[in-house]
Amino acid sequence: MKMEYPISNIQFPIIKFLVVAWGVSLGLPVWAQEPASPVFALGEVLVVGAEDATGGGTAATVTGAQAGQRGLRNVADAAALAPGVTLARVGGRNEAMAFVRGYDTRQVPLFIDGIPVYVPYDGNVDMGRFDTFDMAELSISKGYSPAILGPNALGGAINVVSLRPTQPEEFTARAGATTGEGYAGAFRAGMLRPAGYAQAGISYRERDHFRVADDFEPTKTEDGGRRENSDSRDLQLSAKLAWTPGEDPGDEFAVGFVRQDSEKGVPPYAGTDTNTVPRYWRYTEWIKNSVYAVGNKSLGQTGYVKPRIYYDTYENTLESYDDATCSTQTKRSSFTSIYDDYAFGGSVEAGMLAGERHDLRGAVHYKQDVHRGHNVGSPVETFKDETWAVGGEDRISLTEKLALAAGASFEARNSLEAADPISGEAFADNDNTAVNPQAGLFYAVTDGVFRATVAHKSRFPTLKDRYSYRLGTALPNPELDPEVALHFEAGYEGRLAENLRGRLSGFYSRLDDTIQQVDRVAQDEEGAWLYQLQNVGESESGGLEAGLAWTVLPELTAGADYLYLHRKNLTNPEIKLTDVPEHSVKIYVEWQALSRLTLVPNVEFNSSRYSSSYGAKVDGFWLCNLDAQVALPRGLELAAGIRNLFDENYELGEGYPEEGRNAYVSVQYSF
Predict the structure, then answer these.
(1) Alpha-carbon span 635 to 515, nearest angstrom
(2) Within-domain flag for 3
(3) Sign (positive/negative) of CA torsion 530, 532, 536, 542?
(4) C-alpha R_g of the chain
(5) What are phi and psi of 441, to 5 degrees?
(6) For residue 53, pLDDT beyond 90
(7) Which residues contact 633 (CB under 8 A, 6 or more apart)?
(8) Cα separation values, 432 from 38, 271, 415, 446, 507, Å
(9) Predicted TM-score (pTM) of this structure
């Protein structure tokens, strides 16, 4: 398949320059230095005010070490550790998603090192494909997110920040196995010098199947035991090369490359809903390549500028088969769909301290999304969008303890190319704009911060939202407007007592111009009714988050997080809001039982949730897990765990049973 690289002429001189700079640095000796941070700082996008005591609590953070301690090997599972986040699965595509206070991955976009990561056509991304082996931390903004982040952060944003070397030479290797004939291996090597650093890594995961719980009742498409068509394979390659000139501590310029190469089955529907027809799908190709260049240059005493450019490709081959054998494609419902998409863009962020009271930041973003897709035997359809945004924000120190953070962004989306695949004529031009102001007050007390925030956010309709016929069941709607949300939140985070920390926040969101399916808008030539996506929905959501972390003993810590989320469809109450429970609880204990042994028992509860807009539900469930780590001499570490300890038969989506009791074991070596 031929690939296009329209910005290669920009990237290659940068790469050449940094390679030369790095080559010069290789001959320099090892030097005495302060301990380096493992976080790739160029990939961070901070909320104004959140980096100090007067702005804490605006975002949740999960570290790579925390994910590793729980044996969580993909970004979706890691994100679900954060308060306010619930794991969901798009069963029909076998995609893992993290919902943030009820908002999905189209409304809470995923970033990796500050670069947006999604399929250009539909705006979604399978978070289960990305490994946590190279993750330093992920931060999750909720509602009130950085005004300089860019467009489409309607409900917040998730930013995964990668690791960087901290030692002159370092190496980490891991190997492991899971039930279901699963195997995994990974290694990462890096080197750090005064003039820069380099790092490269590879991770590989393969699994033949997973097993459903013993008390699963067999259906026509699933007989229990091994889940049908549940195999997967993931290969991830990454590399980065950085130059640190040393003129100022913050000066740094880096280029990087990430490749995600996957293959997966899609387990068929195994429920009792007669409205759902089982699919026999396989993604035989799921490949995403990203190349990027990012830098940070200090300006004067307090200023900086951070440029970022990137180019992504996404190749997808979906095979739809006649039956569970996945061997023939003779029915009308069978096809081979091919995506050959790419996106490119960049941003320039800058900031400075102005006087003693103002911390100013601003950013300009541009991105172009291109979708080229077709079913084998049909012509290629090409759609192109461009999106740009300008944002700015300021943290104003009103008093020693009180700060006001205020910002706004202007965002626009323009259609560049879109032809009706049936008539062959171009769709009418359609453009969208949005203005999104926000503000927050932060009051610092001893060992804690009170906060109150308000934010207006938006999401532009995707190419698929506007132009897809949905396999002949729908009509396109190029005139869709952006979804808009208004978020309010008030809360506290800090120390409550000796060895006890806590947080409590209440929030409310109003979502207008929601894009919803409207049935029976027209009939096709055979008399079948068609639906259309329209801006007809208004909904609201509100609730509270509460959390405690108690250091019982120096070697024993316990914690709990609770989320109450009530959502209501104001326009059409009969159309249910899906995929998120009303109540969820996460409880954990970290116990250093022996000098080298750490045990982490943890429990999770989710109440029932709707899994279809017409009211299909899944029951609530409890999950119990146990993880253990043993630190051995000479950089060795053993880890093992049991997930779903009591073999709970549960679902995240009706008709798609999740994994029963399963286990993993791994060994890791670092120097």
Answers:
(1) 52
(2) no
(3) positive
(4) 25
(5) -110, 135
(6) no
(7) none
(8) 40, 40, 9, 46, 28
(9) 0.91
Contact status, residue 65 vs residue 163, Cβ threshold 8 Å: no
456: β partners? 486
57 and 223 Cβ atoms separated by less than 8 Å = no
Asked if residue 411 belongs to a domain, the reply is: yes
485, two tokens:
């949300």
Residues 620, 606: contact at Cβ < 8 Å? yes
Pairing of strands 182-193, 448-459: unpaired
Residues 93-142 have pLDDT tens digits of 999 999 999 999 999 999 999 899 999 999 999 999 999 999 999 999 99
CATH number for the domain harbouring residue 280 = 2.40.170.20
> Which of 459, 440, 461, 562 has its CA nearest to residue 503?
562
Q: What is the DSSP letter of 430?
A: -
Phi, psi of 128, deg, nearest 5 = -75, -10
> pLDDT tens-digit profile of 301-321?
899 999 999 999 999 999 999
Report yes or no: 645 and 145 within 8 Å, Cβ to Cβ. Answer: no
H-helix segments, 450-592: 463-467
Residue closest to 568 by CA, chosen among 483, 618, 519, 511: 511
Confidence tier at 46 by pLDDT (50, 70, 90): low
What does the alpha-carbon distance between residue 229 and residue 568 come to, in Å, rounded to a whole number? Answer: 36
In angstroms, the CA 587 to CA 573 distance is 33
| Enclosing domain of residue 255 | 8-670
| Residues forming beta bridges with residue 444, ordered by sequence position | 449
Angle at 131 between CA 125 and CA 136, to 5 degrees: 110
Measured from the Cβ of residue 520, the count of other Cβ atoms closer than 10 Å reads 9
The H or E element containing residue 68 is helix 64-69
pLDDT in tens, 375-400: 999 999 999 999 999 999 999 999 99
> Strands, E, within 498-650: which ranges?
500-523, 529-553, 556-569, 583-591, 597-606, 609-610, 617-618, 621-631, 636-643
Per the domain annotation, does 329 fall within a domain? yes
**CA-to-CA distance for 535 and 550, rounded, in angstroms?**
46
Task: Report the domain count for the chain.
Answer: 1
Residue-level pLDDT at 47: 46
**Alpha-carbon distance 124 to 237, whole Å?**
22
DSSP state of 75: H
Question: Which residues lie below 8 Å from residue 156, measured CB to CB, with a gap of 6+?
Answer: 100, 101, 103, 108, 140, 141, 142, 143, 144, 145
Residue showing tokens 């020693």? 400
Angle made by CA atoms 464, 467, 472, in degrees to the nearest 5: 95
- Tell me which H or E stretch contains 9: helix 8-25
DSSP states along 308-362: EEEEEEEEEEEEE-SSTT-----STT-EEEEEEEEEEEEEEEEEEEETTTEEEEE
Q: Which residue, 130, 41, 569, is CA-closest to 349?
A: 41
160 and 106 Cβ atoms separated by less than 8 Å: no
Average pLDDT, the chain: 91
pLDDT at 246: 79
Would you say residue 2 lies in a domain?
no
